[in-house]
Amino acid sequence: MSDPRAFIHALPKVELHVHLVGSAGVDTVLALARRHPGSGVPTDRAELARFFEFRDFPHFLKVYWAVQSMLVDRHDIRTLVTGLARELARQNVRYAEVTVTPYNHLLDGMPADELLTGLAEGRATATDLGVSLAWCFDIPGEKGPEAGRETLAFALRERPEGLVSFGLGGPEVGVPRAQFTPYFDQAREAGLHSVPHAGETTGPETIWSAVRDLGAERVGHGTSATEDPALLTHLVEHGIPLEVCPTSNLRTRQVESIEKHPVGLLLAAGAVVTLNTDDPPMFGTTLEAEYLAVATTFGLDPAGLARLASNAVRASFLDAAAQATLLAEIATLTTE
Ligand code: ADE
Ligand code: ZN
Q1: CA of 196 to the centre of ligand 1 (A)
Q2: Has this prediction a pTM greater than 0.70?
Q3: Which amino acid residue places its CA nearest to atom 6 of ligand 1?
């Protein structure tokens, strides 16, 4: 394929792994920083670009938390959601499951009602733009079982429209997945899907734990699965999709280069790979850029790209009718 860009754009796409705070556009972050001079986030564009150069994963999280701390009310949340929706619409992304971390916003002093109203208003605008949004409420793992308990209680008490899943983010090092088992059990019993991060910054044992202890229906990242053939076989046999975020892993220095990214091995092994952005402006990426990078590096033809887009549709928590509509549209692009 000479230039796959037009084909990638034409694919109706689905994004399954994007954090709301990490989706804040550069202009939005600059505007917030000017309103919050004490946050440590630069107010100058060039400085902000340097601020978004990460030494390692813990450094990335510090920067992420600095941006998060500037969000105070429904207007800020709505600005983020509508900014994300506009960007998704521009890329022909039709549906996204967006990760929100209520525990952190409440801890930073945002009233629950402000958070929920901002999400609902932003989601309504997204619908008008042709992008349907769903929510994943996730536990900030570094804050331990208390955060698990509170995130679950908030999710079940508020149960906002569009909430489909329950997640676990933050660092993996020193944060065993199994301590969150009771909260994931209760979330699943209440009908929320289990989508923890695992295997982003630690080895395959974390992914095993996510699957066995948290009932993971999809794995956030899951890139270290390639280090354990038995795990990889398990993921393939059970069709457990991986939310792979290649540029994120490069920018947090978990992987040296796109050529060395495990996504090539995951595809070759027959894993259900979905491509995602994680925190797009912070990592200087877009969903279309992720498809392009993987296609050019690993030699995917239009059928291979369409398979990735279809994987994301099937791995999503869209209902069967909405999935069928998107899959049919993808199919027409490859049979023309
Ligand atoms: N929060 C935002 N981005 C994250 C990532 N890549 N991993 C874990 N937690 C996150
Ligand atoms: Zn993530």
Answers
A1: 11
A2: yes
A3: 278
Which ligand 1 atom lies nearest to the CA of residue 248?
6
Structural tokens at position 206: 């974390």
Mutate to test the pocket of ligand 1, among 61, 177, 200, 207 (most ligand atoms within 8 A of CB): 61
| pLDDT for the residue numbered 3 | 84
Torsion sign over Cα 214, 218, 220, 222: positive
Alpha carbon 101 to chain centroid, angstroms? 12
Given the CA of residue 171, which atom of ligand 1 is nearest to it?
Answer: 8
Q: Which residues are bridge partners to 13 per DSSP? A: 93
Q: Where are the domains of the chain?
A: 4-335
Q: Are 306 and 48 in contact, with CB atoms under 8 Å apart?
A: no
pLDDT number for residue 335? 79
Q: What's the gap in Å between 336 CA and the centre of ligand 2?
A: 35
β-partners of residue 96 are: 15, 133
- Residue 42 CA to ligand 1 center (angstroms) comes to 21
> What residues does 100 pair with on adjacent strands?
137
Fold annotation for 4-335: TIM Barrel (3.20.20)
10-residue mean pLDDT profile of the chain (336 residues): values are 90 98 96 93 97 98 97 97 98 99 97 98 98 98 98 98 99 98 98 98 98 98 98 98 98 98 98 98 98 98 98 98 98 86
> Annotated active-site positions, please?
200
- Give the number of the ligand closest to the Cα of residue 17: 2
